[in-house]
C-alpha cells in the first residue's frame, strides 16, 4: 500500500518541484534581473564582517550610544546583541 502511494505521489512531487525551481536555476538574461543579482552578491561580499554595510562613522557612533543606553536601561552585563543564556534549575 505504501509503495503504491510512493510510486504515484513521488513523480508528481518531483515534477512539481522541478517546475517551481526551473526559473530560479536559469541564468539571468534580463538586464534588470542581472543588476539585482549583482547587487545581492555585492551586498553579501560587504556584509561578511557582521557590521553595518556602508555605515558612516556618525551612524556607528549613534548605534553605539543606543547600545550603551539599552545596556544601562536594562542593566545588561554582557553584550546586548547576544541572546541571553537561560538556566533552568
UniProtKB/TrEMBL annotation:
Organism of provenance: Heterotrigona itama
GO MF terms held by the record: proton transmembrane transporter activity
SUPFAM superfamilies attached to this UniProt entry: Mitochondrial ATP synthase coupling factor 6 (SSF111357)
Record-given protein name: Uncharacterized protein
Pfam families for the chain: ATP-synt_F6
Transmembrane segments: none
Keywords for this protein: CF(0), Hydrogen ion transport, Ion transport, Membrane, Mitochondrion, Mitochondrion inner membrane, Transport
Statement: the UniProt record of this protein carries the keyword Disulfide bond: no
InterPro entries from the UniProt entry: ATP_synth_f6_mt, ATP_synth_f6_sf_mt
GO cellular component, one term: mitochondrial inner membrane
Family under the similarity heading: Belongs to the eukaryotic ATPase subunit F6 family.
GO BP annotations, alphabetical order: proton motive force-driven ATP synthesis
Domain of life according to the entry: Eukaryota
Location relative to the cell: Mitochondrion inner membrane
Amino acid at each position: 500500500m505504501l509503495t503504491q502511494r510512493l510510486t504515484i505521489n513521488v513523480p508528481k512531487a518531483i515534477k512539481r518541484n522541478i517546475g517551481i525551481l526551473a526559473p530560479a536555476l536559469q541564468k539571468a538574461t534580463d538586464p534588470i534581473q542581472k543588476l539585482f543579482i549583482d547587487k545581492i552578491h555585492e551586498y553579501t561580499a560587504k556584509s561578511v564582517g557582521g557590521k553595518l554595510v556602508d555605515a558612516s562613522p556618525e551612524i556607528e557612533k549613534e548605534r553605539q550610544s543606543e547600545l550603551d543606553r539599552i545596556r544601562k536601561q536594562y542593566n545588561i552585563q554582557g553584550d546586548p546583541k547576544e541572546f541571553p543564556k537561560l538556566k533552568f534549575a
